[in-house]
Amino acid sequence: MKKRQITFFMMLAFIVLLVLPGCKKSSEQEGNGKKVTLVMGSWRVSDTDQINKILKVFHEKHPNIEVKFDPTTSKEYNAVLRTKLEGGTAPDVFYLRSYAVARNLYDEGFLENLTNLPGLKENYTEAGMDPWTTEDKQTYGVPFMAVSHGIYYNKRIFRELNLSIPDTWEELIEVAKKIKAAGITPFANGSKDEWTMAEIVFMNLAPNFIGGREGRLAYDRGERSFNDKHVVAAFQACKDLAPFLPKNQEALDNNDCQEIFLMEEAAMTLEGSWNINIYERENPDLEWGVFATPAPKGMEEHVTFHPDAAIGLNSASEHKEEAKIFLEWVTSTECATLLGNELAGFFPLNKNNITLDNEHANEFLALNRGRGLDVRWVWPVLLNGNPDGYSLIQDGTIAVIKGDITPQQAADNLQNGLAKWYPPAQMHK
Fold first, then answer.
1. H/E element holding 213?
2. Is-contact 203 331, C-beta < 8 A?
3. Considering only the top CATH level, what class is 148-304+376-426?
4. How many CB atoms lie within 10 A of CB 147?
5. What pTM value is reported for the model?
6. What is the three-class DSSP state of 298?
7. Fold of 4-146+305-374
């Protein structure tokens, strides 16, 4: 399989613009030969085998430190982690979501300050560390991986129906009409797992309708209302997808949707790079590729490329020194290369040159070239109040797709909900 070298420094330089404004302990010093077990928390249950392969390399270098991977399902992770932190039973090290969620844990004293961790400043740009760094430059997480969004498509179906990759949103809808006319479901997405409507659908396409990073920051500066024509257009795009989803889509969870695409019962699915391994493992003979979610005609195209996870250190851990030895190794190019290849579709945030083997992972990265990049819309700021922007967008998208409310009503709900606590939204009440 063709290998490609990616310069992550260039790929990640955009992140620094996304938001508004101990001593090194060597392996020879790891104690008196006593073995220590660190527990590592995560929301990625399906990655257990791959993570254990990565950890095996660390164990070989540090035989007295074992890292036990102990994941929790994504839906339950935040609540379970907080309960364990408050109860004193949390893992020694654990995945941190980006921006507000992890920052709250740090502000509450649950996370160790890692600003001076050896290897951190050497292997990451300020941009790469930014989602886990305070305004006064205190870093509380080792950047681990980013993910990308796009549209998976079945190459065989496109070939047999003589379809081309659409260049605009309008062309995408016309492609969907032709697929449906051929008796095939155009998109495999469903809404039983409500989060998929927020993250995989709305935040996949939204940057193209609001104008990417610059558009997002215009809302955060109070220059736009959250129910303006751009937001309405984004919700309208979700409504445009509704006729092309599977029958009874509201009864289909994420696993069902993946199965529909794997069984070639659907020609496309809005997806994320994080599921490359699942599709390759479950149906290795499936001919599929990925293309960027297209923008409306005349608008610049953007890709949602999101810094997804860092690894933090439990401030109450009984094995902080061993944990820091592990986290120092996580900063290394060796770990980044293992991550990028064992977990195809999770892109190391390490700034050094990493060679990726996986064709689909490289295909996702290629979508970044020549396009604007931005994070998932609500992560940097809009998760910080009640009702949060994530829930408002999730509920609005589901209701629009079901036909319960109009795109304008969904945008009004977003504006009115945020205006209850967010000053820029209050400027447009």
1. helix 212-220
2. no
3. alpha beta
4. 21
5. 0.87
6. coil
7. D-Maltodextrin-Binding Protein; domain 2 (3.40.190)
